[in-house]
Amino acid sequence: MKNLCLYDDGEHKYYLLGWEETEEGGLVPTNQYLIVHGNKGFLLDPGGAHVFPRVLANVSEIISPKNIEGIFYSHQDPDVSSGVTMWLSIATNAKIYISELWVRFLPHFGVYDKRRVVGIKDKGNVNMNFSGYKLDFIPAHFLHAPGNFNVYDPISKILFSGDIGVSVLPFNKRVQMIEDNFGELLEYMEGFHKRYMSSNKACSKWVNMVSKYEISIIAPQHGTLLKDKAARDFLNWFKNLKCGVDIIEEFYGR
Ligand SMILES: [Fe+2]
Ligand SMILES: [Fe+2]
């Protein structure tokens, strides 16, 4: 699928980058997002080494990688961040933004230049200034990583939610975005959230916090985007979800 523009007011744009056209054996499919303001770009979870050529091609259709000023990583997982050295070598003016918990792990991916890495403190960072616009880095800890952040864009009102709100759909059932019928997506969401999310305490804390934002779209790192009513329905479901340590007996099986 081609790049999908989710928001465009002429100056500010928000893209879901294109998906691979064929199933890539056993690979978890991932979503990558690009915010463009004027001629500057900001990448959200651009993904692992395996998808780098495809994501770079998608980005290059929209802006020059040299104009990327920031790359955000919601957490440390390989499907999120293992392409980091490739991006640093191509997007030569970009800084990396990631939880300060993971900064010391980046050298394991081959990142040694600390001047290009900004560690996000646990409380997050609202009103982060980029070229002519602001972003909020908001905490989403233990959902699932212990150091984990979302990005809220006040212009488009899109919440990039990382691994929160993801759906794991069979390749032939992939849908880019829904507004209604959230219930039909649940069977592709429930297992992942119950196993990966840490506890209802973390879920409800996060829902209370993000509910203060006006949200047009919840944009997760995997699967279908949740627009308007579907976003609200997801928040209501997630707020009450029992998961992780709440149901730990299920995972031990004895
Ligand atoms: Fe993850
Ligand atoms: Fe993920």
TrEMBL record:
Domain of life: Bacteria
SMART domains: Lactamase_B
Gene3D superfamilies (UniProt xref): Ribonuclease Z/Hydroxyacylglutathione hydrolase-like
Residues annotated as domain Metallo-beta-lactamase: 29-222
Entry-linked PANTHER family: HYDROLASE, METALLO-BETA-LACTAMASE SUPERFAMILY, METALLO-BETA-LACTAMASE DOMAIN-CONTAINING PROTEIN
Protein name (record): Beta-lactamase
Natural source organism: Thermosipho affectus
